[in-house]
Queue: 2 jobs
Job 1
Amino acid sequence: MPELPEVQTVVDGLVATVFGKTITSVQIKNSARIYPSQYRFRKLLIGARFVSFRRRGKNILIDLSNGHTLWVHLKMTGHFYYLPEKDLTGKHDHVVLGLENDSYNLRFNDYRRFGYLKIYPTSEIFSQKGLAQLGPEPLEMSANEFAQIYKTRRRMIKPALLDQSMIVGVGNIYADESLWMARLHPERMTDSISNAKLAELHGHIQTILNKAISNMGTSVDSFAGVNAKPGGYQKYLVAYGREGEPCQRCDKPIRRMKIGSRSAHFCSFCQRAR
DNA sequence: TGATGTGTTCTGCT
DNA sequence: AAGCAGAACACATC
């Protein structure tokens, strides 16, 4: 489940492998979710050079030398792989890009096919639905701004953390981890949390995201970097996926329940509801 | 065979 | 207006 650290890991991997390279061939399967049409998509990519790579929330933005930007969302199971051309492409490689003077190619792989690749003029990219309404970046905002956003709304903190219009990049894993660190119950109402506690939560989010980035992300489902290697943060998880295991603070079992129609993992003893 | 989980958008309800 | 629930998307995994 790529969240901010996993997407950053992919962006870093792309910079390290294909930055500045020119696309010489494009293979698109009918299973690929792309925009615009296959014909125009191919035409916009062939001959273009990768100019820069950016992350915005969980979105990947790749600027091309022709004034267009390739926008990729990995959703749950999307991957970019940079592999030798001689390695056969698999069933779930939906788009394959050949590169100039390179015996490796770049594949977009997604076994659930929720992920997509879209191309728009660079000048119009941030007005696209899905990018236009995104909230601030948690690693670039102040604790005050963070507290303001949650203080002025009334909803459960866990679903609020997942809402990309409030802040970006946090998904199910890092929301559960951050709330455990801050000893906040996932159902706690945002407007009832003190400014000091919200600032503390923001600090935990930053610490956790940064540590996960240094560890190349968390691989619980299928996440892997551009080099096809898994991340390493899963060994630090204290709440997510630890249902039934003793809480590392109070030894009581970690609970799992549906909150806002997503599974939440937390300690009902040291993460207080009020 | 069928339920589950996953990020996001959309619809419809309160 | 704001918040929430449920559906939809697709499919490997259990």
Job 2
Amino acid sequence: MKEALRDNLERHLRALLDEHGDDGALPEFALEVPKNPDHGDFACNAALLLAKRLGNPPRAIAERLVAALADAPDLVESAEVAGPGFVNIRLAGARWHDLLRRVLEEGPRFGHGDSHADLKCQVEFVSANPTGPLTLGHGRQAVLGDSIARLLAALGAKVTREYYFNNGGRQMRVLGESVRARYLEALGRAASPSVDVLADAEADWPEEIDGLPVVFPRDGYQGGYISDIAAEIRGEHGDDLPAKTEDAIFREAAEKTIFVDIRKTLDAMGIEFDVYSNEIDLYEEGKVEAVLADLRGCGLVYEEDDAVWLRATKLGLDRDRVLVKRTGEPTYLLPDIAYHREKFRRGFDRVIDVQGADHIEQFPFVREAIGALDCPKDRVELVMHQFVTLTEGGEQLKQSTRRANFVTIDELLEQISVDVFRFFMVQRKAEGHLDFDLDLAKETDWKKNPAYYVQYAHARTHGIERKASEMGVPMPDAQSVDADALVLQEEIGLLKKIAEFPDVVARAGESREPHHVAYYARDLAGLWNPYVQDGNRHRVLSDDASLTSARLGIALAVRTVLANALDLLGVSAPERM
RNA sequence: GGCCCGGUAGCUCAGCUGGAUAGAGCACCAGCCUCCGAAGCUGGGGGUCGCGCGUUCGAAUCGCGCCCGGGUCACCA
């Protein structure tokens, strides 16, 4: 119906332009639902946009549009000029009838669109290296990336969720050395640096303590899980493993164990990846070497100070970057470029990288480098998100990854449900800091906790259906649903809100901003809960059969939309709570 | 210092490719109710949209300058 109205308006605007001998393009006018219901169902700003172009006052143009709209009485009930030149439009009666029928007909597909139909999209997210448990920041990224993937799928895309991790570089070596140190310490063959020394990067680092050597690396991983892994290795391989640094057994065991835990955590969050890829595979397949050769072929590579550099300044960036270190070991940038080129070779039309704010510096280098290698660089997008802080009892807990005092997702999920976790994590727009209010997350009062508030609104529709069933009242379906009896202001408000859902999904998906869906769901629940609660004035189940049927219809529509919205966020829609 | 993100009600935050009187939740105040599903409903107070200038019919939204907070500027990932 909105589409029909837009078509109609465009036709009139075309005629108006032709009349002025203007064969230019139609203006991109807005057709939006006004905040104030007195302003009608839709407001159009086309007259304001055309005032200068046509040399007429906006209100005069608006008058012409209003007159022209009279040609479609079954679509437009009334139209009037308002304010500086808006055209406020009220739709003709049968509109809500069609809406309810459509919602019930489309069910789980209601709200979905086709703007990404047939597009192969890859969403790369989490991508945490297996050096420790997933923390809050990863959790935000996991939920954000998964919701974006769900939105893209709802817009018709064929989506691949991918997790890429670095397992080849120095960081993994440090991890192995950390485990080895804990192993030797447990055997009494090495000494552990004191907590104070570990915590202070400036502190003097002892060579030995009480005659035992200190083997723990200066920048080692300090978390307690390192000792656990060391203990596992001891259980499996005994006490006689060589103390050599180069021994890969510690690194490999650590990677394997930690990765198993990461996957468990992902699973607990309800997140499933289609593809896991890693750095070492890229080396083994020769992709890294190949990309270096190709960059060299483009004249973008040079040697200096025994290192191999990318001439990024030639690509419009502010400095050059090292691709291969003096030690002969590549930096992360090189395999990253190789990886991103592979993404396009694998046939993706859109590549979306979800990354934390600490990684954004890297992105332009990767994008420009693959652009130079003839990849469509404008089809790589970066979705950046800021960090997460945790607030409990009014205290903000600082997250420090280096030190061992971070809060893990596992720890959080022991205290709150996944649904609450996920809802809270996508509530805020990604570019902003996220203050995770643990007190509110733990709140079980459905009225206060926004996640429960939405879920409860959904569960309520089932409660009403159960009650109807007890009373022997049938539920309407798409054929029988009839909105004519819905005349209360609250009911029209609900219908209007429901009608907005497809636009919300389209906008959230196209802008990669799932938080819009969370806000929308909260808003719809905020209309539905009071409506049901205020049963004295408008009970769903009454003696009036047609009114009851209409209200059951709206209950089903609310249920459908809430369920669809929650699904886009990966949050469950319970039938009872 | 350069670059990126943020600054909107007491708190946490929405606000679309500029639109009409800037919104929500929590907290606070007052009245009503105990109802299909549970401490609920209705109304109210509370704002220099960080500051200034500019762009125009119109700016929280766009541009420029500054202030404050966070991030980042490695041969770390």
